[in-house]
């Protein structure tokens, strides 16, 4: 089995048996978005610890194997990390996480959807809590 086959298997395994799939109640962050090319969706919910870390995280959605596997892998990677870590996440980190660099432009959008959702949620939360501390 070549290494790209192993990664393809891994992506399919996360797609079929998604880790951290579901909803989190209560949660502090909720964010969702869809891929405009196909309409596939990812929603992420996060519980934030008092020291601004990702205490718990879940996702749900519908879509292709790459978008859903990428969301599931990202939740595993993100759990326990500071919110600031999310701000530093890059496309390269996601491709590394997926174990592949040979995705075409359409598939890149699939792979990056969950990162976009998580960043949007975290930025919104940090913006909101900055406003809170101003009061
Ligand atoms: Fe829709 Fe991949 S084909 S996100």
Could you give a quick summary of the protein structure above?
The chain has 135 residues and is of the alpha+beta class. The chain has five helices and three strands, in the order H-E-E-E-H-H-H-H. Residues 35, 38, 40, 63-64, 66-67, 110, 113 line the site of FE2/S2 (inorganic) cluster.
Entry keywords:
135 residues, 5 helices, alpha+beta, Sufe protein. Chain: A, binds FE2/S2 (inorganic) cluster
Please characterize this protein's 3D structure:
The chain is built from five helices and three strands, in the order αβββαααα. It has 135 residues and is α+β, with helices and mostly antiparallel strands. It has one domain: Alpha-Beta Complex (Sufe protein. Chain: A), CATH 3.90.1010.10. α1 crosses α2 (65-78). The protein is globular and about 50 Å long. The structure holds FE2/S2 (inorganic) cluster (FES). FE2/S2 (inorganic) cluster binds at residues 35, 38, 40, 63-64, 66-67, 110, 113.
